[in-house]
């Protein structure tokens, strides 16, 4: 089992998930917004699930001026443009559910 | 350390399986709001609620965005108004109900619970005034919920109160007949009522609670149903383990949201209520979980056993996931709020007697049941008495939320919309219980109440 994060920068990490039909420009579209706002990408994983692309990015928000809520809006708009669903969540939502 | 599979699982639970946090409920003590002048008392109540709950809705929305999990309801529970209003020089508590309604509207919550009285052993003058005010309060207010505790294992059943509540429920239905008896959906009669229940309509802020507190109610029948479907053909040990695992994950989200909300509002975190709370959405149904276990329809033989397994496994998984579990904590089986239950009733698979049996092994009771509008008050009281007996003897919470649907008969249905849903009118026994209910007095506490 591959762990796609580590315990550095706890509490500053955001998990971005992209789900939808694969097409050209998804990674570029998402990472472009992240780079422009100084989010550091710690990991990108992807898989195909029921013919859909599922991409998960773990990013460090430490040095970004954009808060989670604003990032969420921008990525949601980009997702609408690309025909995919993009969600942005604090990592605790996942850590709490699966770990004590 | 997280795996890709775990991240995808969480996303799927929210996006496809209706996982949500059903409610974060801010409990507020109003014990310092009593005053001999009812207007002064109501002003204190309004000021305190709007001061403490002012940030509840924005904080709830912020947390929902941050964690990517819907928080369906933000609500308030208060000290039972019968206790707060009792020292006021007034016979009419309508002003208190209007004040709660106004404060709830001001802070943007859809329900406020606590227009309540605890009368399991007897009725004080303040309790009596509150009970007399319930019909008009539920008629003229939009957001106020009322509850009355009429029995405990320690005290027995106050049958005078049970008789009275049959008449009160009929009166509420009559006064809200233009809305299909909607007022009855906001009135719960309890045995062994919990003091930290975050779920409406039965929530109030108990007398042993702190100044204010955050309690959380989770949901997640859809998640459990999908998990059960994945172990089709597995034995009961496998089934129970599967439900436990799902309940653990659901409850962890409740714990996270509750602790975060409490920290941001600057109040203590109380409990997670690990109930499976259905909604009328397809796939978000407790009945459908029972059917996924192998029953053709909810209500057929085997339903009570299936529900017992479900309820127990939810508790075991949930108890491991949260440091403080409380409230009702069990599977809810409201008819109108569960698409699978509605279908089972409409197809003749589920009757009132089977529902009563089911309430022996789960929370909470006969919930959101519509019965013919001409059902006598004594029959409604007798239905309540049966349910209270189950709670009293089994040392558990039971409740009745019943709607004698104005002008409706079996075959009709009442439509409340939203989370309250739609209830098909169910038949009741036609033989009278009037002479039994008419006896008056109390049913003594059972022998096992003598536990000291």
From TrEMBL, chain A:
Which parts of the sequence belong to the ACT domain?
Answer: 15-89
Bilayer-crossing regions: none
Which InterPro entries does the annotation name? ACT-like_dom_sf (IPR045865), ACT_dom (IPR002912), UPF0237/GcvR_regulator (IPR050990), UPF0237_ACT (IPR022986)
Q: Mind telling me which Pfam families this protein's record contains? A: ACT_6
Q: Which PANTHER family match?
A: UPF0237 PROTEIN MJ1558
Family note: Belongs to the UPF0237 family.
Q: What NCBIfam families does the record tag this protein with?
A: PRK00194.1 (NF001220)
Q: What is this protein called?
A: UPF0237 protein SPSYN_02763
Q: What organism does the record attribute this protein to?
A: Sporotomaculum syntrophicum
Supply the source organism's classification. Bacteria, Bacillati, Bacillota, Clostridia, Eubacteriales
From TrEMBL, chain B:
Signal peptide positions are none
Q: Per its UniProt record, what CDD domains does this chain match?
A: RNR_PFL_like_DUF711
Q: Report the Pfam families cross-referenced here.
A: DUF711
InterPro entries cross-referenced by the UniProt entry: UPF0210
Q: Could you describe the subunit structure of this protein?
A: Homodimer.
Q: Return the HAMAP family for the record.
A: UPF0210
Q: Which family does it belong to?
A: Belongs to the UPF0210 family.
Please report the name of this protein according to its UniProt entry. Answer: UPF0210 protein SPSYN_02764
Organism equals Sporotomaculum syntrophicum
């Amino acid at each position: 089992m591959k762990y796609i994060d580590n315990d550095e920068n706890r509490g500053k990490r955001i998990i971005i998930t992209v789900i939808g039909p694969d097409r050209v420009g998804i990674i570029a579209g998402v990472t472009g917004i992240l780079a422009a706002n100084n989010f550091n990408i710690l990991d990108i994983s992807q898989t195909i699930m029921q013919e859909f692309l599922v991409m998960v990015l773990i990013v460090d928000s430490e040095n970004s001026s954009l808060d989670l809520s604003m990032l969420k809006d921008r990525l949601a708009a980009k997702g609408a443009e690309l025909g995919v669903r993009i969600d942005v969540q604090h990592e605790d939502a996942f850590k709490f559910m699966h770990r004590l | 350390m997280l795996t890709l599979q775990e991240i995808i699982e969480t996303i799927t639970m929210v996006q496809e399986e209706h996982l949500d946090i059903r409610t974060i409920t801010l409990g507020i003590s109003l014990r310092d709001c009593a005053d001999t002048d009812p207007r002064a008392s109501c002003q204190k109540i309004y000021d305190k609620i709007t001061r403490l709950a002012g940030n509840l809705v924005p904080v709830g929305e912020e947390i929902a965005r941050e964690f990517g999990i819907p928080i369906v309801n933000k609500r308030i529970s208060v000290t039972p108004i019968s206790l707060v209003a009792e020292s006021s020089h007034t016979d009419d508590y309508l002003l208190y109900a209007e004040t709660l309604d106004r404060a709830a509207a001001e802070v943007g919550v859809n329900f406020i619970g606590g227009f309540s009285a605890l009368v399991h052993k007897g009725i004080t003058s303040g309790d009596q005034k509150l009970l007399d005010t319930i019909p008009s309060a539920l008629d003229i207010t939009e957001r106020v919920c009322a509850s009355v505790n009429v029995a405990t294992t320690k005290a027995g059943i106050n049958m005078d109160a049970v008789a009275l509540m049959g008449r009160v429920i009929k009166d509420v239905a009559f006064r809200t007949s233009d809305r299909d008896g909607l007022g009855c959906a906001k009135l719960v009669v309890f045995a062994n009522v919990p003091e930290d229940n975050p779920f409406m309509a039965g929530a109030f802020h108990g007398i042993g609670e702190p100044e204010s507190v955050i309690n959380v109610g989770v949901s997640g029948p859809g998640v459990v149903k999908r998990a059960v479907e994945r172990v089709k053909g597995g034995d009961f040990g496998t089934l129970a383990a599967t439900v436990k695992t799902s309940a653990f994950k659901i409850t962890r989200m409740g714990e996270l949201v509750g602790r975060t909300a409490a920290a941001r509002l600057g109040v203590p975190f109380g409990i997670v209520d690990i109930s499976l709370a259905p909604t009328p959405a397809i796939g978000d149904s407790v009945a459908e979980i029972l059917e996924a276990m192998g029953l053709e329809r909810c209500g057929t033989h085997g339903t009570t056993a299936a529900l017992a397994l479900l309820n127990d496994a939810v508790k075991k998984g949930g108890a491991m996931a949260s440091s403080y579990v409380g409230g009702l904590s069990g599977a809810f089986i409201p008819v109108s709020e569960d698409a699978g239950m509605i279908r089972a009733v409409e197809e003749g698979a589920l009757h009132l007697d089977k529902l009563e049996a089911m309430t022996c092994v789960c929370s909470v009771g006969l919930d959101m049941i519509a019965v013919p509008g001409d059902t006598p008050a004594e029959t409604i009281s007798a239905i309540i008495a049966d349910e209270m007996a189950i709670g009293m003897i089994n040392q558990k919470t039971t409740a009745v939320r019943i709607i004698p649907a104005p002008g409706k008969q079996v075959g009709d249905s009442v439509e409340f919309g939203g989370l309250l849903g739609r209830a098909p009118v169910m038949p009741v026994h036609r033989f009278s219980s009037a002479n039994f209910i008419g006896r008056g007095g109390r049913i003594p506490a059972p022998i096992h109440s003598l536990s000291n």
